[in-house]
């Protein structure tokens, strides 16, 4: 076992977290699986993964918590206080959670502390406030029969019931909270399946939720493969909503499974996100934005900038600056706060990203590989690709790694055509010093989020979700909470 510099409390948790967390306790039921440290490829711990029978048990217990009203039956203010206490506990245990996330996922401890924990605390507090603010409305109606009757009509928002949440491995804790907390705020109960590669931080979240006062059985975590446990909770007839973040291909399967029993579903799927750098852009801002937007968490971000359309007058300088930057980046494990390049999450992901780079080189693109990375662990050097054609695989498919593909353009209309020529539409950014161009072009970019002179910046109040094959539904804002409710009309004759 190799925990690097993990604190004793983290090592104790690795011993305690033996498997799924159901009805307030860890279960060692199922097939044992190694959970790896991506910086070494060595095991951190072992957990038991469940099967369809364990998934059924988890859904049944979650359903029971809905039926007896142990959570939904509380006053909104009581639920709000518990969620605020949950946020306080995350803050109190922030270093522990950050270390768990870094050791299991591979990311920088700086990101884990500042984003995975810091943003999550703010997110929970924001969403907790919506617990007391869900509302319906009265409606004026013109019903003409029976003659002489009068009517009072209004709408109610009520919790959907059991929510099945399936979350990915790039931000395991944070994305889990994006789904769990709005669902809890709406009065729902949740059964959640984390990615097999990264189950640990979500298991700790479930413990802390119980400590905060969320009743046992309201938030359950079931471990297992997507093909077995993920499929089962998505297709389960007692599930009222399925929420999924992951690839477009798997998202389609999840959506089909949900619609078979008419469950609501939301899908936050892939992105091949463009960064459009106009002729008048501030080149220093744009280069820094590309490094943050494209290499944050080693590019393992659904909204990461991946394809860069740069005006020809700036193209060469832009590429040179990126190359200089990746040449200077030092690699190391996420637990080293000085390391700027950290491992990818798994050997499979490492091979996938390296395959994209190798094929781009074979197809004639110029491939600039950054500073050398360790041979032990799942590292890939940050890579700048130029001389690529817009129709190449590297410019069209989601790589989900530290690869920046730069393509020149000559005029804005040409650039817009290339930006929008994608089946994906999650996010995009526009870089310009012209307010007129920013206002004119942002509505024409086909993406669920368009940033101007920034990239990958999020806020709990700002809805986030894609267009086209990048998904359905929104995370964040009141839209997220409302999506875990049913809207009921009530019509009273008198």
Write the layout of secondary structure elements.
Elements: H1 8-16, E1 21-22, E2 25-26, E3 31-37, E4 42-49, H2 52-67, H3 76-92, H4 94-105, H5 109-130, E5 138-139, E6 151-159, E7 162-166, H6 172-185, E8 189-193, H7 200-212, E9 219-221, H8 226-235, E10 241-245, H9 248-260, E11 264-268, E12 273-277, H10 283-295, E13 305-311, H11 312-328, H12 347-362, E14 366-369, E15 383-386, H13 393-396, E16 403-409, H14 412-420, E17 424-425, E18 427-431, H15 435-441, E19 449-452, E20 467-468, E21 471-472, H16 477-482, E22 485-493
Parallel strand pairs: 7-8, 7-10, 8-9, 10-11, 12-13, 12-18, 13-16, 15-16, 18-19
Antiparallel strand pairs: 1-2, 3-4, 5-6, 6-22, 11-21, 14-15, 17-20
Helix pairs in contact: 2-8, 3-5, 3-7, 4-5, 5-6, 8-9, 10-11
Strand segment count: 22
What ranges have pLDDT less than 50 throughout 5 or more consecutive residues?
none
Helix content: 40-55%
Q: What structural category characterises the helix and strand content?
A: alpha/beta
Broad shape: globular
Annotation field: number of helices: 16
Give the C-alpha Rg.
24 Å
What can be said about the biggest beta sheet?
A: 7 strands, mixed
**How confident is the prediction overall: mean pLDDT?**
97
Distance from N terminus to C terminus (CA atoms, Å) equals 71 Å
């Amino acid at each position: 076992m190799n925990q690097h510099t993990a604190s004793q409390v983290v090592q104790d948790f690795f011993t305690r977290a033996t498997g799924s967390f159901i009805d307030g306790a860890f279960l060692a039921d199922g097939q044992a699986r190694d959970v790896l440290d991506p910086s070494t490829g060595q095991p951190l711990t072992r957990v038991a993964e469940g099967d369809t029978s364990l998934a059924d048990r988890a859904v049944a217990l979650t359903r029971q918590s809905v039926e007896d009203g142990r959570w939904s039956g509380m006053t909104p203010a009581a639920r709000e206080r518990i969620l605020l206490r949950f946020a306080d506990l995350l803050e109190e245990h922030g270093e522990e959670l950050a270390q768990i996330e870094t050791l299991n996922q591979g990311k920088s401890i700086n990101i884990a502390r500042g984003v995975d924990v810091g943003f999550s605390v703010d997110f929970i507090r924001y969403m907790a406030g919506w617990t007391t603010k869900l509302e319906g409305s009265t409606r004026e109606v013109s019903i003409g029969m029976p003659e002489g009757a009068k009517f009072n009509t209004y709408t109610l928002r009520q919790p959907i019931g059991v929510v099945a949440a399936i979350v990915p491995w790039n931000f395991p804790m944070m994305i889990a909270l994006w789904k769990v907390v709005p669902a809890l705020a709406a009065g729902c109960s949740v059964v959640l399946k984390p990615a097999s590669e990264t189950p640990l931080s979500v298991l700790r979240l479930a413990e802390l939720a119980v400590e905060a006062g969320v009743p046992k059985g309201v938030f359950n975590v079931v471990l297992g493969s997507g093909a077995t446990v993920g499929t089962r909770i998505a297709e389960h007839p007692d599930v009222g909503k399925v929420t999924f973040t992951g690839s477009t291909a798997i998202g389609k399967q999840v959506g089909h499974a949900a619609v078979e029993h008419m469950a609501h579903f939301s899908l936050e799927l892939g992105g091949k996100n463009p960064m459009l750098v106009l002729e008048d852009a501030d080149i220093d801002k744009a280069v820094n934005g590309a490094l943050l937007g494209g290499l944050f968490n080693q590019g393992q971000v659904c909204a990461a900038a991946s394809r860069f359309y740069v005006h020809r007058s700036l193209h060469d300088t832009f590429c040179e600056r990126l190359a200089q930057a990746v040449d200077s980046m030092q690699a190391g494990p996420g637990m080293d706060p000085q390391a700027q390049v950290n491992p990818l999450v798994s050997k499979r992901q490492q091979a996938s990203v390296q395959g994209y780079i190798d094929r781009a080189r074979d197809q004639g693109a110029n491939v600039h590989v950054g500073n050398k990375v360790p041979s032990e662990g799942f590292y890939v050097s940050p890579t700048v690709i130029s001389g690529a054609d817009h129709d190449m695989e590297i410019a069209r498919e989601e790589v989900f790694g530290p690869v920046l593909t730069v393509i020149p353009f000559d005029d804005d209309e040409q650039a817009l055509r290339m930006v929008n020529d994608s089946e994906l539409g999650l996010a995009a950014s526009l870089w310009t010093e012209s307010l007129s161009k920013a206002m004119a072009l942002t509505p024409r970019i086909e993406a669920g989020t368009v940033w101007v002179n920034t990239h990958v910046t999020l806020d709990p109040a700002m809805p986030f979700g894609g267009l086209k094959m990048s998904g359905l539904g929104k995370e964040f804002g009141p839209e997220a909470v409302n999506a875990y409710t049913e809207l009921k009309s009530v019509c009273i004759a008198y």
